[in-house]
Amino acid sequence: MTSQAADTQDTRTPLVVRTRDELRDAQMRWALAGPVESGPDDGPGRRAVVMTMGALHDGHLELVRRARAEAGSSGQVVVTIFVNPLQFGAGEDLDTYPRDLDGDVAKLAGVGADVVFAPTPDVVYPDGDPVVRVSAGRIGEVLEGESRPGHLDGVLTVVLKLMHLVRPDVALFGEKDAQQLLAVRRMVRDLEVPVEVVGVPTVRETDGLALSSRNAYLSDDERERALALSRALRAGAAAADRGAPGVINDAREVLDGADGVVVDYLALVDPLTVAPVADDFSGPALLLVAARVGSTRLIDNQAVEVLPQR
């Protein structure tokens, strides 16, 4: 491949593959193509993966741009698009979850994706629902795990399967799904999975709303109400000099005053364990919120450097 081809790589429409054989063929062709002429600032030629459920937005595209940088010009960027049934509970939006593969592929054309792996459930789970699954352990029993039992187990099971199928050197995940990112990192560490996990900061609208595929469900009025989540997080972070109780109290005050927002949980936790911090805690923490606005469940989080109470 010439340097000119490398220069135009990020504007190409990615190759769409649907089966395991097609994915292996795309990986083999990349391996056989050999290195690309690259500049001195290019990273190593690695394979990077971004795992999504489709309905792509600018947050996903930022993950892919970062993946391109992590892979280097001679690397390969794979984006998976798969609505994973294992992570949806009874009564959740599996059947109505937004799907637009053609639109997603068009969005990926300009951000550096080489391959889109868009399998059907029978490709990922050829024997039906897997008998053996990954357990998130205690990380999957609190917060999101308590509200959505089995959710993180389903996430980790599909993430591990996709890691085996794609065989990436690096996998990128958004920090908006903070508990999921922690669970993936712990799985990779505990099970000796040879993949580097990179977290990418949350992408927000100019008014502070965290980007999410589920934002498409919100009416104009509900979208305005949903801004209470990011306002609450900012209020909590601003109270960091009053210790952990001040952070929670100020965030809770914003949520309590928001019409049409039904809070699932608000928690200030250790960013490595998701265990709630003590009232006398000081140091780095994560302020997490989940709430329903209309019929749409949204999550968000904010890093907080909690100071000793004055």
Could you explain the architecture of this structure?
The chain is of the alpha/beta class and 310 residues long. It has two domains: 3-200, HUPs (Rossmann fold, 3-Layer(aba) Sandwich), CATH 3.40.50; 213-306, 2-Layer Sandwich (Pantoate--beta-alanine Ligase, Chain: A,domain 2). 36% of the residues lie in helices and 19% in strands. Strands 1-4-3-2-5-6 form a six-stranded parallel sheet, sandwiched between helices. It has a three-stranded antiparallel sheet with strand order 7-8-9, with helices on one face. α9 packs antiparallel against α10. Catalyzes the condensation of pantoate with beta-alanine in an ATP-dependent reaction via a pantoyl-adenylate intermediate. This is Pantothenate synthetase. InterPro entries: Pantoate_ligase, Pantoate_ligase_C, Rossmann-like_a/b/a_fold. Its main location: cytoplasm.
Q: How are the elements arranged and paired?
A:
Elements (H helix, E strand, L loop, with lengths): L2 H5 L7 E3 L2 H14 L13 E6 L5 H14 L4 E6 L19 H8 L6 E3 L3 H4 L19 H4 L3 H16 L3 E5 L3 H13 L5 E5 L19 H19 L4 H14 L4 E9 L13 E11 L2 E11 L4
Parallel strand pairs: 1-4, 2-3, 2-5, 3-4, 5-6
Antiparallel strand pairs: 7-8, 8-9
Helix pairs in contact: 7-8, 9-10
InterPro entries: Pantoate_ligase, Pantoate_ligase_C, Rossmann-like_a/b/a_fold
EC number: 6.3.2.1
Subcellular location: Cytoplasm
